[in-house]
Amino acid sequence: MGTTKHTGRISLPSRPDPSLWVSKVPFGLNRIKPRHIRDTFKAVWDNRGQLPYAARILTQGVCDGCALGVSGLYDQTLNGPHLCTTRLNVLRLNTMPAIRETVLHADIDELRRMDSTTLRKLGRLPYPLIRRKGERRFSRVTWEEALNEIAAKIRSIDPKQLAFYLTARGITNESYYTAAKVARFLGTNHIDNASRICHSPSKTALKRSVGIGASSCSYKDWIGTDVLVFWGSVAANNQPVSTKYMYAAKRKGTKIVVINPYYEPSMDQYWIPSIAESALFGTKLANDFYQVNIGGDIAFMNGVMKHWFEMEEADPGSAVDHDFVRTHTNGYEELRAHVMRQDWTLLESSSGLSRERMGEFARLLAAAKSAVFVWSMGLTQHRFGTDNISQVANLALLRGFLGREHCGLMPIRGHSGVQGSGEMGADPFSLPGGEFKGGDIERIERLWGFPLPKWQGDIVGVSLEYALLPEDHERKLKVFYTSGGNFLETMPDPEFVERCLANVELRVHQDIILNTSTLVDAKETVIVLPAMTRYEQPGGGTSTSTERMVYFSPEIEGPRMPEARAEWAIYVDLAARVKPEAKHLIGCEDAFAIREEIALAAPNYDGIQHLRHRGDVFQWGGAWLCEGGICPTEDGRGTLLPIELPELRKPEGHFYVTTRRGKQFNSMVYSETDPFNGADRYDVLMNELDGRTLQLREGDAIVVYNRYGAFHGRVKWERVKEGNIEVHWPEGNVLIPKGVYEPFAGIPEYNTTVIVEKAETYHAFKDTKYVERRIEELETESG
């Protein structure tokens, strides 16, 4: 941990810099780009019935969008107000009226004809609902009836047949903590959250490499670092306010490098609406793009390190910070020997980049005195995600880019609620302030006053699969309690996921809106519980940003769903009904009591108990974790790890495929057209050279398929790495294999190989077993 405190906000330069302009044509006219002014007026119109309340949410609450951490209109990085269209889009979830009863109680097939975007726009859930097997519509039920039925069902099953899941939808630290406590109180360790599906390899890798489970630096470290690297992260699209930090960094002379299979337009140039110069003329963000193959990052990083070690042989000290390595790391010689054995031909074919290009990046970092590495799901959502992140840590440790100003390792979070989820213990491998093992179990048992189940809980994907186990299996999922989340649109193989959901005896959906998962039949009963938003919760709530800032968001005066309840309060009430004889052990009487308890359970969060007023915030761990190079490991050192190349099996004529986001927030899609490239949701992004080889023209109808599923779309030429294609998420999840998990962190694999063919070719031979034969060839060639 660090002792240096965050030094507060800084100001942007007052004079413009025309060298960074995209164009002298104002507002990017006639260009494909987001229309921020138009989108702002649309948000005003959408919220026109509750404008005063919407304004209070924006000016008083902590953003429930991305995890940059904006309290009111201000963050801890830059002076001046911040507002992005992502936050404005999410705003409507908080101001919507209730769903009309005639719609809410319509025949279930009428509701199923709506997609999640339409369902979201119907409005808020007004009261508890129930739908039993064979019933055609939801019925209204009282809280008493709903919770008693859930409690009775939980009492009737083995705790190993009960699983909890929490999404990232504006959920606060208080709710994560209470859910983690209640799950263990009820005897189950099957509890998981959305963060783990995105960034569990980040935590796992950082723990084993440098002993930390969060970003080692702050956003301020971007501004003035020599090199800022975005690895598999499209921050401009997913965390739009971050473009202000990139602008500030560019004005300080920082070089921005993007490593991604797709030359993402939003990371190349952006019109930042809250900076007049940028809003008018745009800002050139990236200095360079390194377009790796999907899954080629480990090979690329091994190539970079191989260059460094070759540079060291010719000129010692020219690439490696030997003082830092000698004082603060273990494993240097083993890593060096491993990397030097790597074959350049294999590194080039696996990474998709030439030896010369890898050398350019190696020399850039070798000449830099500081660098910050930022990454997201482009690195984590692989079956070798943990190894990807440990490779990034290797680069930082070899150059000493850790524990000091303008240096660090940053897994950038996509949602304001997720950084705190694991830190509050809401996953099967964690407890508040620690891991689910040894001394931490004993520590939490002493604090909570009841024994914890000692068996290892399952990740959510496995829990869902276990719904299909035989009836008498001790881990057959019989009760699934989910706070938000739409598994039909976030997990691989949606048809399989639907079968799993339908095979659960009782599903509980605690949420603020309907989604397509809510409408799936259950084996016995579906119960829907209306939750409050973070702005409605009595006593307010807290959330933790990517840079470990813990923000207080107050309860905001405004309209309420009369029967909605605070998420944490629902858990407490349920637990008391399941075990009334032990309800005195639950605690968590109100938000203030929960924060007092968090401070005791998670030592890093000592200070959360003092957050009570708008604007209250503190940063746990100081400005830099591993300050001075000292890691919170047994010997205070980081570990350099030799990482093997993953086996990337792509037969001739096949493509790697991955998924990307368009104009959306998580699985909530806000436009059918991507504002950065004009792509439709069913456009397949492809390199023109690949398409010409297949005799395709832009706009052609094609089928992308493999042994797992088929995706029907149209060709769109984009600057995607040759041999790779990209489709939108979640539409493209039909191509992704189920049940493939990263071995260290349990994250699902979201990448695979596919065949691409013209639609008429695919359909013309489909009835002659052509498709089946082609898939069999794929299995043979890549098996």
From TrEMBL:
Domain Molybdopterin oxidoreductase: 124-576
Molybdopterin dinucleotide-binding domain: residues covered: 656-753
Pfam (any one): Molydop_binding
KW Methyltransferase (keyword) present: no
Keywords: Iron, Iron-sulfur, Metal-binding
Top-level taxon of origin: Bacteria
Protein name listed in UniProt: FdhF/YdeP family oxidoreductase
Organism: Paenibacillus ehimensis
Lineage: Bacteria, Bacillati, Bacillota, Bacilli, Bacillales
